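User: Modeling request: complex.
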Amino acid sequence: MGTVTHAHGSVAVGTGFDPESVRRDFPILKRRVRGNPLVYLDNAATTQKPQPVIDALVQYYASQNANVHRGIHHLSEIATQAYEDVRAKVQRFINAASVREIVFVRGATEAINLVASSFGHAYLNAGDEVVITGMEHHSNIVPWQLACQRRGAHLIVVPITDSGEVVVEEYERRLSPRTKIAALTHVSNALGTVNPVKEMVRLAHQKGIPVLVDGAQAMPHLRVDVRELGCDFYVFSGHKMFGPTGIGVLYGKEEILSAMPPYQGGGDMIKSVSFERTIYHDLPYRFEAGTPNIADGIAYGAALDYLTRLDWQVVANYERALLLYATNAVSTVPGLRIIGTATEKAGVVSFVLDGIHPHDIGTILDQEGIAIRTGHHCAQPVMDRFGIPATARASFAFYNTQEEADRLVIGIQKVVEVFK
Amino acid sequence: MTSELRSLYQEIILDHNKSPRNFRKLSDANRTVVGYNPLCGDHYTLYVRTEDDIIKDIGFQGSGCAISKASASVMTTIVKGKTHAEAEKLFEMFHKLVTGELSGAIDAEELGKLAAFSGVSEFPARVKCASLVWHTLSNALQEKSETVTTE
Ligand SMILES: Cc1ncc(COP(=O)(O)O)c(C=O)c1O
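Assistant: Request completed. Predicted assembly structure:
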């Protein structure tokens, strides 16, 4: 066994948060992988689920299952009520003005595609511009590329610095009279950078440009108030914030959503249909064609309840302390370079090792029961920016511990040992 | 190291990763094919000079994980001087080896240095790393497309 050679105090004690108090709620964290206790550090890919979320899924199928918004029978009423209750929970959770602003989708990806397609159809024309940053996830690049191709518009990319930050002045310079929308990530999944989105929204609004914020990586770490941010759209995925896969949210300001054409057509999104004329439903149903993901939606409500019960200030302090601890700890490994050294970061330590490919790091850590992600993290332009093919990425959640960070370091030392 | 790890990262593999053989561009190559795995970033260019159906010379350049690089290096040392058919047969055998489908008696002599890759079969996620350059060679010999991607 290697050892961690730097001095360390207890992260938990310093912040008044005991990660054991939440770990017991996540049954998967008790399992072993390849003979070792699981160290799950792939939270940016997807987070684990607390027992109430798992229970809600089972309970729905065991005792509530029915289609929503259409039956007059008892079960359908229960299912509809439970599903719509979650919409109201989301509204309160992000402080949206109304449930009409909460559109359920499959995840952040579908939400961005919805906006790029519908908003793009309504407002993008030849010669127009869409502004994004150089640290976007592919899901906040490709839908805009598609929309731009269809409309003859251009994608404008704000470069990022060596530390993985957007220079706000560079961003501001790229907001032009031709810019129809800016689409910005709140937190970068590959680098961990937290962008100053409130300021970036303000600058765009000064020029009358609406802003979509990709909150997929922000929701698990930050308390988000969409009205405080002022953004026009905010998108996120349930599975990255301790909820099930297959459910996510598009928040959109009512005045802007209500002016957008439908995305998909079908049942549930209409008031009446004839072959001559269809009258679309009101918000948010206009953007929710077909039977929705009822079960996962309801279980997502249990995740929101769980998060609401946590003292968020305490959790945030703990996460910050843990990230700092992990960053310092891995930095002690000779030949290790952290990719993404922004001043404001959340949850992510992305790194490369001299002469050792991230893929080999991932395989060796996996043998130790340590789950990290290696590769381009669906952010190939970020890799290109740093001139690397891939990184190894450890990503943290509030249930991770200082001991797990230590095991990560010991694991990395073993990797170095193998390739010595 | 766990025994699985030791069988994956055998000495031969670590050695070829550190000092890859035939790690050069051939100026007189008549087949040049790129092998690329976008998911993990393995990226190699394979240079082959064939004459009368025989691989006269072969070299490669590029970067990637230890498994892909060692596989490329070992492959170049093994197929040099072989006919196209012999190289394809080796690929077939190698593929069976790394996917764990090599049943019955393994002809150690026939496998030679390739046997070092037997541990890969315990790591399904790494099969593509090991076989990338072989796919690339196969394309080169069949004069197929100029870029091979696996993921
Ligand atoms: C920043 C960011 N945006 C968007 C997404 C897409 O999320 P999903 O795959 O859940 O739609 C991800 C997922 O990795 C992400 O990290």
